[in-house]
Amino acid sequence: MKKHDSGMILKRIFAVVIAFAVMLSIITVPKLTTYAAGGRVKSIRVTNLPAKQLTLKKGKTFTLKTKVTVSGDVSRQVAYKTSNRKVATVSAKGKITARKKGKATITIYSKANKKKVCKIKVTVGTPASKVALNRTSATLIKGKKLKLKATVTPSKANVKSVIWKTSNKKIATVSKYGVVTAKKAGTVKITAVAKDGSGKQRTCTIKVINPIKITSLKATNNRTVQITISDAYKLAASDFAVMTKQFAVGSYRKSCMIDKVYTKDNKTYIITLNKDTYLYENHYVQVKLTKHNTYKEGTYSEGVYQYTSASTKTVEKGVAIEKFNCYLDGFGFSSVSVTGVPKGITYVKSRAGNGMEYLVFSGTPLQTGKFTTVIKSTDELGNTHTNTITWLIYDNTHLYAAATPSYSVNSPYTRTYSSKISAGGGSGNYIYRFENGERTVQGDGYWVQITNKNNVSVKFEKAGTYQFNVVVTDADNTALTATTQMVFYVKESRKVTTCVKDLSGNPISGAYIRISNRNDSDKYSAYMSGYTSENGKSIDYLAEGNYTLETGGDNYSCFSYEYLLTVNADKEMNITLPVYKVNVALDNADIPIKEYGKWYDKMGKCVGKGNILYLEKGSYQLKMQTTGTTTYNVTLAVTVNGTASVTATVLEE
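Above: the chain sequence. Below: its structure as tokens.
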């Protein structure tokens, strides 16, 4: 081939390439024209950083995610550049690589409009490793505020600030300083995000509730009030105020001291009152939440009960009876029905100065016999009392007898009932025997004896119903007799041992124990009382039920203790009183201990008796008078911090 021919071929090839390029330019130019004429880049932002800054450790990388907002048909492509390649580089895809400690600025700009940029400040150093909050959960009342505090670690982190976010602005907002404002009821998450782009964050879940109200109030006993509030909210004892009054129309004047407040769920609260400011039966009680402008009122009552009682009245036919009163045992005014009144006897309803209602019976009985009067009364609270009176109306030729039923529990102890059997008629001089002619009957688990005239001693070791016929004989006319039946209802008991000690662990002897049944209808274990033995113990046998146990007594009358006791099995109660034992001797050893009298403090209050005192912690100035033939005045100064032995000074007569 000739040389000029090869040149021509090259020219032709070049011409084809040029023509192809021109053709491509013709195809693409219209689109570029559309970008410029019909579209606009509005903004560029980074979506995976909380703020326009980033802290990275040397050698670490982070890829930016960008969002370009445009109008019309315009390119969303961006490019990246760094202000300091020695500190941080950035790839075409937005991947930042930390090179060495220092600062750099990464600029993101639109390819369609280089004036639209977003700048990210990059620090190569120590990023946040953790964000902590002072609260991770809280309950906030609508309209209230809560200050959250965020702590960024480690301490050498380059950026220690956070960005605050709320998951629902309608429920709660949060300021840039972490102040949360509750807007409406609901649950919201408040998040503190590390500002340095490390991704570390911590969330506090906040429950917003409407202003709290006390929805219910119940005085469960004379020292415990239970309330329920509208929403769960943590309250302290200082948030409560408890007041009491006697009359519905009266004002609350009496403040009750609060010992403690307990709750399991921050919604139902049990308030325990101090022993010196307890509630009285059927008085009014008010609980107020002092910081929340809400209160609730109620009354304290042991509950509606049905009570029965029985008695015997012996009167002579044709002889005017002395007026006698039958109290109705109710609260307020009562409605009363009376049936079975013997002929010649009438009654009227009356009311004592203390408010107690009673029936007054009077008149002259007109016929002999045994009659039953039933009195049923219902008081204002709905309590009912049924009182049965058995009338024995006699003359010289008629003899009648009766015995009221008894209720108890089985135990190894002997009980004595005085005037158990009533009789009237004949000469008035009687012999009491069981129908077997003996004064004693016994069997499997029981023993009953008529001890003195109509007194009866019993021991029932097993539960059950026991019935015994008793024959009453006129001692001056043995042909004149009357028979009555004694009935004993005995319920299964539980053994309750009460152990009383002082703060040093010393058993307290002579401590007074009173156990009262909280069920006024229960006749088996209404109440019982006694004193602890030398080992500080008292043993009682009780029917199953709920009781109030109280301690008090001559030996430490300066202090009393109350405990709510549920008896459903044998149990041992260990009670530690907040007192210390103080042994007292007189500087005159000739005065015997049995002549030591009662000790009184400066206020004239008795704090104990004898040579052993049980005192609360503190300092005392006490006085005492001996009780022997010669009376001495005695003074005692003592500071109680624990078990002590002290000597008192005997003054002249």
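Residues 532 and 538 are 5 Å apart (CA to CA).
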